[in-house]
Automatic annotation (TrEMBL):
Keywords per UniProt: Hydrolase
A Pfam family that the UniProt record links to this protein: UCH
Domain called USP: residue spans: 1-186
Protein name: ubiquitinyl hydrolase 1
GO molecular function: cysteine-type deubiquitinase activity
Amino acid sequence: PSQGTGALFRIRLAGGSAPCTYLSPQDPRPLCHPAIDRALQLCGAGGPPHVRLTAEWDVSTKERLFGSIQEEVVQDAESVWQQQQAHGQQHSCTLDECFQLYTKEEQLAPDDAWRCPHCKVPQQGTVKLSLWTLPDILIIHLKRFRQVAEQRHKLTTLVRFPLRGLDMAPHVAQRGQPGGQLLGRW
């Protein structure tokens, strides 16, 4: 406790494109301050949004608590370095590539075999998803997690998409394509 001598340090916010702002030491939840929200919104691309908080100590209090420190270099934690590396080499794709993968034909695993109704022998098949029609308003929900065994891993692939002029024609099945005649039977 500061024993009535005032604040031990001031918290300075500097992150994104936000101007330098000081947070109130009396605030019980300083990270919920509107200035933090504004700074996070102003963060540029290239990784998760983040802000930098700096503790500016009163000189006499700092020397009393930590001694006379000549070099004040604070090493970043390894997790910071890993995030920088991951987002520096971040893989990206286009929305068109996402649709190509979605509609790509896949070979089913042997344990997903289907039993032929004629010969009663399990057959390893293929599956292909197709878009037959599109609504007037198309809402696209992208997969955010990848399941590996019992663990879920968050996907960080950047998906580039057009804001105008999205052409979905290459991804909608045509009647003349293999499997397209099936639509006529429905």
